[in-house]
């Protein structure tokens, strides 16, 4: 994470984000993008290659044909617009907002881990939406609805579930005399229980 020197809480946040960054996941995401768009990255630096948004727009056009016009430019607002269009495409494919990154996270390299996480999420949601691509990470679960017949529901009303009563396996009455619990134990001087 390059840029101006950070102090105080900004430095702590930057250190936490850098510690969470996984280069292995970055390599997986890079290989996945290269496979899907059938094109190599222009440089070895993952974030720098994605910064102008061109590769991301090409990726989105493979996933949703004709979704965005690819604009290669050195102007920052065009590059940020490309990134924003990619994020819109991710949402259209069903990626939740919390899985995505902010444009500034990629453009200013503020949160590179979130960029990689968004690409993993995109692969899963695009596959679930029916795009024929490999998946990064675990496959999304399908919803499984169960319907019970009226007979089964009625039978369940008459069963007492003893598991909801709590655990009493370790409780017993040892140490209790005359209704009072003996806490002090045995008095070594007298040989008997400690008097309260």
The structural class is mainly alpha
- Mind summarizing the main beta sheet? 2 strands, antiparallel
Number of DSSP strands? 2
H/E element sequence: HHHHHHHHEE
Continuous helix count = 8
Q: Based on Cα principal axes, name the global outline.
A: flat
**Distance between termini?**
67 Å
- The strand order across the widest sheet is 1-2
What proportion strand? under 5%
Structure write-up:
With 196 residues, the chain is mostly helical. It has helices at 8-20, 23-37, 46-50, 54-63, 76-92, 103-107, 112-128, 150-156, and strands at 176-177, 180-181. The chain has a two-stranded antiparallel ribbon. Helix 4 runs parallel beside helix 5. The longest helix is centred in the middle third of the chain and has 17 residues, at 76-92. The protein is flat and about 90 Å long. The termini are far apart.
Keywords summarizing the entry:
mainly alpha, 196 residues, SM22_calponin, Calponin-like, flat, 8 helices, Muscle-specific protein 20, single chain, CH_dom_sf, two-stranded antiparallel ribbon
């Amino acid at each position: 994470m390059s840029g101006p020197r950070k102090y105080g809480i900004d430095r702590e946040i930057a250190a936490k984000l850098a510690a969470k960054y996984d280069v292995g996941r970055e390599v997986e995401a890079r290989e996945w993008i290269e496979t899907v768009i059938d094109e190599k990255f222009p440089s070895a630096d993952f974030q720098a290659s994605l910064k102008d948004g061109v590769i991301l727009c090409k990726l989105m056009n493979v996933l949703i044909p004709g979704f965005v016009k690819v604009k290669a430019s050195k102007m920052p607002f065009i590059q940020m617009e490309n990134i924003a269009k990619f994020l819109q495409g991710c949402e259209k494919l069903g990626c939740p907002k919390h899985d995505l990154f902010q444009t500034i996270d990629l453009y200013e390299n503020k949160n590179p881990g979130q960029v990689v996480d968004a690409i993993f999420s995109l692969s899963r949601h695009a596959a679930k939406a029916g795009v024929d691509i490999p998946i990064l990470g675990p496959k999304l679960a399908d919803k499984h609805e169960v319907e019970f017949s009226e007979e089964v529901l009625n039978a369940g009303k008459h069963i007492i579930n003893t598991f909801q009563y709590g655990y009493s396996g370790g409780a017993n009455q040892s140490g209790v005399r005359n209704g009072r619990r003996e806490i002090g134990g045995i008095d070594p001087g007298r040989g008997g229980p400690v008097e309260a």
